[in-house]
Design a protein that fits this description.
eleven-stranded mixed beta sheet; 5 helices; 42 strands; 18% helix; elongated
């Protein structure tokens, strides 16, 4: 409600002295009602008014009541500055009446103060005429009106009219009956390294277990202000049905139930239930494991074992000379000793306590506490954690960033760090373009030969022509696949070059001599040690910047 600060006694004094002939006209703009005081000599000259210069007034959020310095008769009219229409103006020409009207800023309530009239009491029609003249047509309280007429609330501000606020609808939402955010954050030890034993937690579900319930949106309801204007409410929005797999939908109660036993998760707004294969250990005698879902090895993965899955691979123990292929992430809580033949391929991230003599290729990040004599490629970043987090020997390539504490050692073991593409981008792309062009030429030649053979077969069929056509079709398929592979490689190389343009290598500790830094074709072998520095590429040079600056 508007500010209602005013001097009540002064209001009574002034209003008693003002001539009974007072005209109150409300401005059309309900948000800025303002009255300009003009003086008239008598009613016959009421249309030719002059501005009063010396006045005293009582401010209100809606009106100003004044008297001039000589006590002459005055007349109240609306301000020309307040003529912004919101509804049709209806002047309230109510003589011998003293009112103070307060309207809230949201136009949902109006308070009225009425001064007692000594002669004829007010009639209901007079008060309604005043209210209607000020645009108030809805929510007028008849009981309050009766109290005013019987004189029980003179000089009091009473709620004379009240609108109805709009009720906004509520959006629909899903209630999940499992932990959608299981604790997966690693514990950082005192030396800054990661305790990978805390990773890999997930939620399990039984078949026919209730997973989610949808609660529909709540209806909205429009309101109305005291001027009779409809106030539109915001309609609640419905959410689409859950996408994903491994569950059934029950439309009557809008509930989702697991139709298999396995791991349940909410990924990017999609509900997934995937089977989980759990095994104690994997070794040569158990054979290779191929599984559609997630694989959890509670113990170790020994040598000469291949694990291939469409989901995640989690190994609580150690991994020896094995091959791990995952459609998502690979988590090795106690690391891997690959002895030069171990392999990890992941479409997601690779996380391990340590990696030694292992080849790793990941589309996502590669994280470890130590990397020793490995061949690593990451489609994003390689993070070696802890104050002793070392990259020692081998080659580590990342598209975006490499972080570690120490690179190489005092003996000067050759350690190569690559951001982006190892060879010059222009040279690599020209070589690739030449291969694509050569493959295209061969493909077009095969197509011409195939057209020739087909034409001859239309004339006369023979076993030799059929055999030739079969061979040409096989060659066409082979070169088509090769062409697709080269084009995909070219697009991937362009993407790597773009994303690696701002790549950097951040070393918090020591970079030893013989460390080899390559950034998109630019190469530098350090001859002296560097401490706490960042390597980045600028134009045609590799910059080495201190991290202490």
């Amino acid at each position: 409600m508007a500010n209602k600060s005013y001097n009540k006694e002064l209001f009574h004094s002034v209003m008693n002295d003002v001539d009974d002939r007072i005209h109150i006209t409300r401005a059309k703009d309900h948000s800025s009602d303002k009255i300009i005081i003009r003086e008239v000599e008598d009613e016959s000259t009421s249309d030719s008014t002059s501005q009063i210069s010396n006045v005293s007034f009582i401010p209100s959020s809606r009106y100003e009541y004044v008297e001039n310095s000589s006590g002459q008769k005055i007349k109240l009219r609306k301000s020309k500055a307040a003529e912004k229409p919101v509804s049709e103006e209806i002047p309230a020409k109510l003589e011998s009446a003293h009112f103070l009207l307060e309207i809230s800023e949201d136009h949902l309530s109006a308070h009225l103060m009425v001064q007692k009239r000594l002669e004829n009491p007010y009639t209901k029609e007079e008060i309604l005429e005043f209210l209607n003249g000020n645009g108030i047509v809805y929510g007028i309280d008849e009981s309050v009106l009766s109290n005013i007429l019987n004189g029980s609330c003179y000089y009091e501000e009473v709620l004379i009219a009240k609108g109805i606020a709009p009720i906004n609808g509520k959006d629909g939402y899903y209630e999940y009956h499992f932990n959608t955010n299981p604790e997966t954050k690693p514990i950082i030890l005192k030396d800054g390294s990661v305790d990978y034993n805390t990773l890999g937690k997930f939620e399990l579900t039984m078949k026919d277990q209730l997973l989610a319930t949808y609660h529909a949106s709540c209806p909205h309801k429009d309101g109305m202000d005291i001027y009779g204007r409809t106030l539109k409410a915001i309609e609640g929005k419905e959410l689409p049905k859950l996408a994903g797999k491994g569950f059934d939908y029950e439309p009557e109660n809008q509930e989702y139930y697991a139709n298999i036993e396995g791991k349940v998760s909410l990924e990017n707004g999609e509900l997934h239930v995937v089977p989980v294969f759990t095994v104690e250990n994997l070794e040569a005698t158990t054979g290779d494991l191929v599984f559609h879902g997630d694989v959890l090895v509670k113990g170790n993965v020994f040598s000469n074992v291949t694990v291939k899955t469409t989901g995640n691979i989690t190994v609580n123990g150690h991994v020896e000379i094995a091959t791990l292929i995952a459609g998502k992430d690979v988590l090795l809580k106690n690391g891997m000793q690959g002895s030069g033949s171990g392999r990890i391929y992941a479409r997601g991230n690779v996380m391990a306590k340590f990696l030694e003599q292992t080849t790793v290729q990941a589309n996502g990040n590669v994280s470890a506490n130590a990397i020793l004599n490995c061949n690593i490629f990451s489609g994003k970043s390689v993070i070696v954690s802890g104050t002793r987090g070392s990259i020692l020997g081998g080659s580590v390539t990342a598209v975006e960033e490499i972080q570690a504490s120490t690179i190489g050692n005092r003996v000067g073991i050759d350690t190569k760090l690559v951001i982006g593409i190892e060879e010059d981008f222009k040279t690599a792309m020209e070589k690739l373009d030449a291969n694509i062009e050569e493959c295209n030429d061969t493909y077009r030649r095969i197509e011409r030969d195939l057209e020739r053979v087909n034409f001859r077969l239309e004339q006369q069929s023979s076993s030799s022509l059929l055999a030739e056509r079969k061979e040409l079709l096989e060659q066409k398929k082979k070169y088509q696949l090769n062409l697709d592979r080269l084009i995909a490689k070219r697009e991937n190389m362009a993407d790597i070059r773009e994303r690696s343009s701002r790549g950097k290598i951040i070393i918090s500790g020591m970079v030893h001599p013989c460390s080899h830094i390559i950034m998109n074709g630019l190469s530098e072998v350090l001859s002296t040690e560097r401490r706490n520095v960042t390597f980045s590429r600028a134009l045609r040079e590799i910059r080495i910047i201190s991290n202490t600056l």
